[in-house]
Design brief:
Blueprint lengths: L5 E4 L3 H13 L4 E4 L2 H10 L4 E5 H4 L3 H5 L8 E5 L4 H10 L3 E4 L4 H14 L14 E6 L7 H12 L14 E5 L7 H4 L8 H6 L7 H5 L3 E2 L5 E3 L13 H11 L5 E5 L6 H9 L2 E6 L3 H17 L5 E7 L9 H8 L5 E3 L3 H10 L3 H4 L4 H13 L24 H24 L1
Parallel strand pairs: 1-2, 1-3, 3-4, 4-5, 6-10, 6-11, 7-9, 7-10, 11-12, 12-13
Antiparallel strand pairs: 8-9
Length: 426
């Protein structure tokens, strides 16, 4: 059951009763406030992961509600059905999403789950006590450094930090699920004799943890790697059933299983994301990548059951800053867990030499940022919270909507008319 506490702000009894019933049926702990002032007071006194509010009741108070707690609380607003102007006005005022009246129960669940994922507040469901925390690295856009982050994080978790930051030495498995062209082995300068496709086809090994472990390649740092297939079409041998059996065999033998899930959202990736304890979504700060991330989050909310802790990492792979961090925060309604600075030469050299950055350049700014990622995986928040400013949210993807532009034109015309009248009078 979801464990995320939700604050409901709805003075109308019929709307409030329906929302309370549906949210409770979905497993969310619900508290109610009957006015914006009560909602602000409640947010200051207790922790809530989401506010669901009657839009007409909180008009003009959305900013105060969102920022009542130390870290802005995402807000889902219920708007009158068919009133597009009202929906736009609520978004401009700071709402993270708008739910039109007359919603279906599944739509309410999907929108809430999407907001919780974006804000990194999805709480893990009750799981078995099996050892092995599963950490997935994924990005809907290739070439943004997902493998680099996965490999360096695995090394740090295994205690391979040459800067001596005190990471405990743990048993770590890196699973390369970029099944067509995975490059985990390249990043570590390994030449695996065996791979995941071979293990999937070996029935005796799939029933014996000791035999299955013989398919792993061990790096000098101590981390183990289950490599991607050396032949792209061998991926057909690795289905969800095989992945489930492999994870059941190997997970108990490690403290962390770090999965490089690549950039293809296929059924295997969806299943892997559902099994994970922590998601690290890698973002490149440009419009197309952010749009893809936004679409991915919406799709996951509709099709998958995710209960992992979700974090975003911004990787600056170009020297020029294409978007500001605040633009990314405004879209995702979440603070990035870390930002990897631009270090093209160091990164390329690390891959070419097969010596990851936290080993080859442990004192570099990029290595310091990678340590933040590993700390995030371990549950250590090394970044102080900063307020998210929602003012620019509506223009992040370029153009104003037609109603907003029309209002801007009317304001400009009114201002020009007043100025002309003053000149005529003078």
């Amino acid at each position: 059951m979801p464990g995320n506490p939700i604050l409901l702000c709805a003075p109308q009894s019929d709307l409030r009763d329906r929302l309370e019933r549906e949210l409770t049926d979905s497993g969310y702990p619900v508290s109610s406030a009957y006015s914006p002032a009560e909602a602000v007071a409640a947010l200051r006194d207790a922790r809530f992961d989401l506010v669901v509010a009657d839009g007409l009741a909180v008009t003009g108070a959305l900013g105060s509600i969102r920022n009542a707690s130390t870290i802005p609380t995402p807000c889902l607003v219920v708007a009158p059905a068919g009133d597009v102007e009202a929906r736009i006005a609520f978004l401009e005022a700071g709402a993270d999403d708008v739910l039109p009246a007359g919603w279906g129960h599944r739509e309410l669940e999907a929108r809430i789950e999407a907001l919780l994922i974006r804000s990194g507040r999805v709480q893990p469901a009750e799981r078995s006590k099996a050892p092995g925390q599963v950490v997935t690295f994924f990005s809907p856009k290739g070439g943004v450094g997902t493998t680099t982050l996965a490999v360096n994080t695995a090394l740090l978790l295994a205690g391979g930090d040459q800067a001596g930051s005190g990471f405990p030495g743990q048993k770590v498995l890196v699973l390369d699920l970029d099944l067509q062209f995975g490059q985990v082995a390249t990043h570590l300068n390994l030449n695996p004799r065996f791979d995941i496709a071979g293990l999937s086809s070996d029935e005796p090994a799939m029933n014996d943890p000791e035999v299955a472990s013989s398919y792993l390649t061990v790096h000098s740092s101590g981390i183990s790697v289950l490599a991607a297939p050396s032949i792209p079409d061998a991926e057909a041998r690795v289905g969800i059933e095989e992945l489930e059996r492999i994870l059941a065999l190997l997970r108990p033998r490690f403290d962390h299983v770090v999965i490089d899930a690549g950039s293809r959202l296929d059924p295997r990736t969806l299943w892997t994301l559902e099994q994970a304890d922590t998601h690290i979504f890698v973002i490149f700060p440009e419009i197309a990548a952010l749009r893809a991330t936004s679409l991915m989050l919406g799709y996951l909310a509709e099709t998958a059951t995710l209960r992992a802790r979700t974090h975003f990492v911004v990787n600056h792979i170009f020297p020029k800053e294409l978007l500001k961090t605040r633009d990314i925060e405004n879209l995702l309604r979440a603070h990035p867990a870390a930002e990897i600075p631009y270090t093209e030469v160091e990164m390329v050299r690390a891959v070419n030499e097969g010596v990851p950055l936290v080993i080859s350049r442990p004192t570099s700014p990029a290595a310091a940022a990678l340590r933040q990622v590993a700390q995030t995986v371990m549950g250590i928040d090394s970044r102080p919270p900063t307020p998210v400013k929602p003012e620019r949210r509506g223009v992040l993807f370029g153009r104003r909507s037609a109603p907003r532009q029309a209002r801007a034109d009317r304001r400009r015309a009114r201002s020009d008319g007043e100025a002309k009248g003053r000149r005529n009078r003078s």
